[in-house]
Amino acid sequence: MIEKNQFKALVLGDIHENVNELQEIFKKKFSLNNPFDFIFCTGDFLNLENDKKDKIVTEEQIKKGEEQISEMVDILKKYSNKVFYVPGNHDPISIYENSEKIKHPQEIKNIHGKVEKIAPKLFIAGIGGSVDAYDKSGLLWNGFPYKDEQKLKSDLENLEKLIEENSDGFDTQVIILSHTGPFGVGTTISWRNEKNGPIQGGSLVLHEWLESVRNNAKFEVLCNLHGHVHHGRGTSLFHNITTVNPGAIYKKQAALLNFSIHETSKKWTINSFEFCGDFFRF
């Protein structure tokens, strides 16, 4: 936990196995002498075809994928003493079933299904994976590992209990780090063609859960950082909860966020965003 009233964070995701590009971006853009307080990664390190019913992901692919993820987060660790991530729908099932399956240094944590205090009165809670995505023509992308939203609902309810158990009281705030975002907001919508309308890549259950926890007396959601829908890069306001989609790192996109405690309310706020396709140009 950091003992400061402000911090800077880099949010990124959807690397999709572009390890060399990830390394090049960090070397050219960032300094090891000016690290981020936190790096938050929204998942999809890999390209495993978990969501294809006619494909079988082998044990060999899973093991290789775990090694690739370890390599990628080790790159991130050089630029922050605290790296939190959740798995995406193209990442191995093994790191959903056991969040400690990949042995990381203490600076790195798979936060799927977990809660951790990161600053005074501020926690991070993680939920990885995706759900089915649709447009007017029907199903476009199968969810993984959530074949339906009921299991996600159960996992979110368990996450809520964990947040409550760890809460510091009524003024506790939480950052939700997820792979997919809530249904129906700008950061979870994509387009393929005008005829079939928007692709809804977000989760209705997550949408409903974020609505419901507004009435929770033990914590307040500060923001939802997510990825998954590459074209949804940007930010939306959803029931006074800020959603942030940094875009895809393989497109040289990410987001810089600065957080601070507001002088009057004494609550954490996001006081600046910088969305970076542009800042990664070199």
Automatic annotation (TrEMBL):
<dbReference type="InterPro" id="IPR029052">
    <property type="entry name" value="Metallo-depent_PP-like"/>
</dbReference>
<dbReference type="Pfam" id="PF00149">
    <property type="entry name" value="Metallophos"/>
</dbReference>
<dbReference type="InterPro" id="IPR004843">
    <property type="entry name" value="Calcineurin-like_PHP"/>
</dbReference>
<feature type="domain" description="Calcineurin-like phosphoesterase">
    <location>
        <begin position="8"/>
        <end position="231"/>
    </location>
</feature>
<dbReference type="GO" id="GO:0016787">
    <property type="term" value="F:hydrolase activity"/>
</dbReference>
<protein>
    <submittedName>
        <fullName>Metallophosphoesterase</fullName>
    </submittedName>
</protein>
